[in-house]
Design a protein that fits this description.
The complex is a heterodimer of chains A (559) and B (320). Chain A is mainly alpha-helical. Chain A has 22 helices and four strands. In chain B, helix 7 packs antiparallel against helix 10 and helix 8 packs antiparallel against helix 9. The chains are: A mainly alpha (559), B mainly alpha (320).
């Protein structure tokens, strides 16, 4: 007997364990799904903001204390000046093409200078010829990789320094150039000039990412390029790019490439640029003045292209508008339908058809609602109404009639309303049915009519249940994306000023920011921030609903 | 007229007998009110009819056109090709089938075990905690699941398993399974609870363990509700748009070898969502997308009727 019982008990335990496991798995999944979204999303709201962030907020959105930011910027510019100066000096040594252009320009200027000074004839040609010699010597020096030759050519130029003929002419700049270049040529390995130039390009890019456009640089066209690292995590990322170069090198033929990280400090050792790296690394706080920022305006601000800067205000507004108007349509219809189904009918064929249709409506895939919304509201009903209202009645402007033929908030709301209608009907019906029959009997016995007993007795008693259903359908409407894809959602656009315009929405925005938008890939915290806002909104609504239901069910149980 | 004060309604200073006028008025109001309510309720029916009508209307040009045969027999979907547009829906149907199948393979066992746990194992208190968890899982918007699939699960799969792409059948299937779980659990649990206590007691009384009682007695007795739960789960998976659009990779192909779940596929819903923005209204492509909409609609409508029939059986059992 024992022998037979054991495997049975074992099987039983296994069964129970699998049940436990399944439920734990589900809870685990919930945590795994929600946690990263929430945790990373919060980074869009709570972070270490740098002065670049504060300046961006001031310029783009007009928030912040202008005076304080000005003062900070003054300090920061001072701190950054060292970096820019060093980079500039280094550039003069590397960018010989630029120098050569300058030199050629000065030579041309000298010609016109001479003519303006009234010098002509033989003297003119003689002086030009001497200037030409100097120019060629400089160009030779820029061209050459040989240190000694460079220095000797530069010396040639510098010998003419005392020449009174050149004093106060454009040629005077040659001596400065020659002097600084001779200094640079002494420190830089000229044979590696191309490598330096390439690496210096990367450094400049990293500096641009860190500090924004340098002094004297024209403001870039895109807002995202006009500011440096606005957040401390971005600062750290870009600092790494500044300090380290990463190359993919082939170690052996046929093997996958290996990433090689090298310190730029070593690469630029001995040059004017070398101290910059240490300076930036040690003075990071001074260069950015980071402060802990609670960016609550994230939920109100608009955004720049690709959500690179700013918040999700228009999206929240759009979602609220869509939800509100869909509820305006769905709630009365839903409650009336539920009341009719419970109070006015028995079980005849018409009711059965209605029920089947409600269930069908609940089962229609959301994308089909989207198709229907587009085919019916946007392409059929609204244009007809617009035409009628504009042409026949003359109550609509041509503009409104035109807007009606395009995707708009109204169409999207009606589609969403249709989508949540069965949810509201079912929830309300259940809530009305749950009211004990003796409530109704008592009301009827006191002489109230059917209508009044429903309005004053049954509906209030069923209200918490109905309310729960409404909140759940609210959250459903707020989260749905597919129905509004073709009926009224856009990824970017102004905040709508009427319900006849398309709007941004959190749900569609979450899709777009995750998949559709290349710029947004650069700012993961914004991606997560958007979806966090959506999830937080929906979950808050749900938790409120659950709370109301548990309270009212306790009341019904008499606790 | 109607809003007389409560004392009057119950008062005795008014004759209880109605005058013929009052009687008539009451009758007319009653009838009018009822027909108004009926009209409002009937809007749901109208909505369903309109949905069918307009989806079919937009697709009718395609369904009457020369591409219908190809639609149902070809796996090539190249609607934007200039010279040879092809509108074969089979690969897309296959994609939907793949992700749904994977979703169900994961969700049905997990869902059933969880339903058993909720209906027969967990104590009341624990159940009060777990039920909201399920509801919250059901409440998370599909686009958030899609977001998770693309930005968290896909890179993880790619690095962890070395797949060519992180957006594939497995990814979409797993996420769909999570989304179908709440539906499956709640419907299955309802139907298991509907199986009366006395049936369980009889099974225990005969000496069976809980596993035996559940597997041999309760689950067979609740089979119609469980099948309905699975059908509803399938409907949820087939009809879901955002997750598959974002997570399935959108490559119109039937994976080869057939068991390779790391391939990208494209589903019906994702095709509609992805292509509709690029089509010209009234073009063949546009109509073909509506034809896919009809497929979806017919499919979910059929499943819905079946599940409704099954759930009606459960309800009758509960009442009995």
């Amino acid at each position: 007997m024992k022998f037979r019982i054991f495997p049975r008990e074992f099987r039983d335990k296994c069964f129970t364990a699998s049940c436990m496991f399944s439920v734990c798995l589900m809870v685990f999944i919930l945590v795994v799904v929600l946690f990263p979204m929430m945790a990373r999303g919060l980074k869009a709201v709570f972070f270490q903001g740098t002065n670049e962030f504060r300046e961006m907020q001031l310029v783009v959105f007009g928030h912040g204390d202008a005076e304080r930011i000005q003062r900070e910027n003054g300090e920061i510019e001072e701190a950054r000046a060292f970096v820019y100066e060093a980079a500039n000096r280094f550039r003069r040594g590397i960018d010989t093409e630029h120098l050569a252009d300058e030199v050629r320009g000065a030579y041309r200027d000298y010609g016109s200078y001479l003519r303006a000074a009234g010098i002509s004839g033989e003297r003119y040609s003689a002086q030009r010829a001497r200037a030409k010699d100097l120019r060629d010597a400089l160009l030779d020096a820029f061209e050459s990789r040989d240190k000694e030759y460079v220095q000797s050519r530069l010396q040639c130029v510098l010998q003419s320094r005392a020449d009174p003929d050149f004093g106060g002419t454009p040629i005077e700049a040659y001596f400065e150039t020659a002097e600084s270049y001779s200094r640079i040529a002494a420190s830089v390995d000229l044979s590696r000039r191309e490598q330096y130039a390439e690496a210096f390009g990367e450094v400049r890019e990293a500096l641009h990412k860190l500090f924004g456009p340098g002094p004297g640089e024209p403001a870039p066209a895109l807002t995202m390029d006009q500011y440096g690292a606005t957040r401390w995590d971005a600062v750290e990322r870009e600092l790494h790019r500044l300090l380290w170069s990463e190359d993919w090198v082939e170690t052996e033929p046929g093997r996958p490439m290996v990433k090689e990280t090298r310190a730029r400090r070593e690469f630029f050792a001995g040059t004017e640029l070398e101290p910059v790296f240490d300076y930036v690394e040690t003075n990071l706080e001074k260069l950015f003045q980071p402060r802990f920022t609670f960016y609550w305006r994230y939920f109100m601000d608009g955004s720049t292209d690709g959500h690179y800067f700013g918040g999700c205000g228009p999206e929240i507004l759009g979602t609220l508008a869509l939800t509100f108007f869909s509820m305006l349509f769905a709630i009365p219809l839903g409650i009336i339908s539920a009341a009719f189904l419970v109070e006015c009918t028995g079980d005849n064929i018409a009711v059965r058809v209605i029920r089947t249709c409600i269930n069908t409506l609940a089962g229609v895939p959301s994308i089909v609602f989207g198709l229907f919304g587009m085919a019916f509201f946007v392409l059929f009903l609204f244009p007809v109404i617009g035409e009628f209202g504009h042409g026949t009645l003359g109550i609509f402007s041509a503009e409104a009639a035109d807007k009606l033929t395009k995707p708009n908030i109204l169409a999207a709301s009606l589609t969403l309303g249709l989508l949540v209608l069965p949810v509201i009907i079912r929830a309300s019906e259940e809530a009305i049915r749950a009211v004990p029959i003796n409530y109704k009997e008592a009301a009827l016995a006191l002489g109230a009519g059917q209508f009044r007993s429903f309005m004053t007795v049954i509906l209030p008693a069923a209200a918490p249940g109905i309310f729960t259903g409404i909140i759940l359908s609210l959250s459903r409407a707020a989260g749905e994306t597919a129905p509004i894809l073709f009926t009224g959602a856009i990824a970017f656009g102004p905040v709508p000023d009427s319900i006849l315009e398309p709007t941004r929405a959190l749900s569609y925005g979450s899709y777009d920011i995750a998949v559709g938008d290349r710029l947004a890939m650069l700012v993961p915290h914004k991606q997560y921030g958007m979806v966090m806002t959506l999830v937080a909104l929906v979950l808050t609504l749900n938790i409120i609903a659950i709370w109301i239901r548990s309270r009212s069910s306790r009341k019904l149980r008499g606790l | 007229m109607h809003s007389s004060r409560p004392q009057e309604a119950a008062g005795f200073n008014r004759p209880l007998l109605l005058s013929p006028g009052q009687d008539l008025r009451g009758y007319v109001f009653d009838r009018l009110g009822r027909s108004f309510l009926f009209f409002i309720t009937f809007l749901s029916v109208v909505a369903v009819l309109l949905i069918f009508f307009f989806i079919i209307r937009e697709a009718s040009g395609f369904l009457a056109g020369p591409y219908v045969k190809q639609f149902f027999s070809s796996t090539h979907w190249y609607p934007e090709s200039r010279e040879h547009p092809e509108y074969g829906v089979l690969a897309i149907l296959g994609g939907s089938a793949y992700v749904t199948l994977v979703a169900m393979l994961v969700a049905v066992p997990v869902g059933l075990f969880s339903a058993v746990w909720l209906s027969d194992v967990a104590s009341f208190r624990v159940r009060q905690i777990i039920k909201p968890v399920i509801e919250i899982l059901a409440a998370i918007p599909s686009v958030a699941f899609g977001f998770f699939a693309v930005l968290v699960l896909a890179p993880w799969m790619q690095t962890r398993f070395g797949f060519d792409t992180g957006t594939n059948i497995l990814n979409a299937g797993v996420i769909l399974a999570v989304m179908a779980l709440p539906t499956i659990i709640s419907v299955a649990e309802d139907s298991m609870s509907a199986v009366g206590m006395e049936i369980r007691e009889a099974a225990y009384g005969l000496g069976s363990t809980r596993a035996e009682a559940m597997i041999r007695v309760v689950i067979p007795a609740a089979h119609s509700g469980i099948i309905a739960a699975v059908i509803l789960g399938v409907m949820r998976a087939v009809g879901e748009t955002m997750v598959v659009w974002m997570a399935s990779g959108n490559a119109t192909q039937i994976p080869s070898p057939w068991w390779d779940l790391s391939k990208s596929v494209r589903t019906m819903t994702a095709t509609i969502a992805g292509d509709m923005g690029e089509t010209v209204q009234g073009s063949v492509h546009y109509q073909a997308l509506f034809s896919i909409g009809i497929l979806l609609l017919v499919f979910t409508f059929g499943l819905n009727l079946i599940s409704e029939h099954l759930l009606a059986r459960v309800r009758r059992k509960k009442e009995a």
